[in-house]
Amino acid sequence: MQNVESKAQALVDTHYNPKPLPIPAFLKNLSPEQYSQIQDTRPLWQNENTPFQAQFYLPGSWFHQPEVIREVVNGKVRPIPFNLGDFSFGNLKVPADLPSDLGYAGFRLLAPLNTPPNYNEFISFLGATYFRAVGKHAVYGTSARGLGIDTAQPSGEIFPYFKEIWLEKPQAGAQDMVVYALMDSPVATGAYRFTIQTGDSTKVQVQATIYLRKPVQVLELAPLTSMYWHGHGRGIIAGDWHPAQHDSSDLVMANGNGEWLTRPIDNPLQIQATTYSMDHPVGFGLIQEDRDFSAYQGIETQYQRRPSVWVQPVGDWGKGQVRLVELPTNNRDMDNIDVFWVPDQEPAPKKPLHFAYNLRFFLDNHGLIPLAHPVGTYLGDDPKTAGARTVVIDFGGGALTKLPGNMPVKAHLTAENGAQILSQKLEWDAKDHFWRVIAVIQPQTASPSNVRCYLTLDKQVMTNTWTYLLHAAKE
Asked: Domains plus CATH for the chain?
């Protein structure tokens, strides 16, 4: 890691000069579906009795930045020769003059995960500093990034990229895979160490050192990127017949003061950024709550198998904010959800910022949230009052699972910014043992209301705090 940090520190004093790969038109013009037909057929470390293998991506479609990828064997760095013959192109019509020195645009790792002894892909690094992972029986969904800069700012977002990668060859029987990366951008450089384990879930330990070339508007640590189109009365459906289409349903946050928050994700009509101030955060993440096929009805998309992703800081991150950015979309192919940590103070230019965190990509939420929590959010318009919204919140899990319905559970519901709570009631579902809050709320026409709700029993908090930015119903 020290060698990569030295490279990042030296890089910050140089002029930023990216060199996009000279990509032939055949590759540059490929759609994502066509690009996915290109496969590396000869994995690195194949037949070498290693617990992991690596495959590589050609440049093409949206991926134009070069990555110099090397392997580290017993402490010594070796080049990974490029061989165009290692790649198959499916049913694409490949021109005869395709260059033989294209180089690499990214890589993915494989392990005997789902169908041993066969190796299965479980993590992919491709494009900018994006990477995404799956555990056993999951499919790709939410992505992570090494760093985000100025998301949803008027000046435009800046996308750092990994320009050099080192893959540490694992020994036989190793439980984890180590990857080093050198990051570059017009405004920041960085050094990264990823320690990756896979199984029922995939865990990534991230150690990073960032150097700013110059100040930025928003420095974004541990960013996650996901997609929310519609579902549960939220988002713009525009004629789609599926009951829901999204990679994640909720943002969950754990503050250092012991409070847990659940914020259902939305697909707004306009760009929407919401901040949650925190001190000594315990974690945050994007959760896919519903795991039933019937909730999505997507035979191809399999949203019930998209992983939740949790960020757990290592060390004290101090004061800052979790920021959620929601962009409007009308299709499932656009990632429109960003969430990240913004520290209260960014480092001065050329001064190192060291930070570390653990990522977990998982299907089973069991054990993550200590309290009962919102397991469903449904929104609708109230037909009796112009602008009013019907809000339905289901709380389940935790101690609520075995709590009888005759217990004096109380709902605490508040609405800010001049909104009026016109009615509310609390119901108990005896079959599935959850509590349902049903409320009619009338926000001000000009400004949304921050609505919060949680349950107590004999003054003891029983659940996460549900929070949402509620807009008035449109005519």
From this structure: 1-362 (2.70.98.10), 373-470 (2.60.40.10)
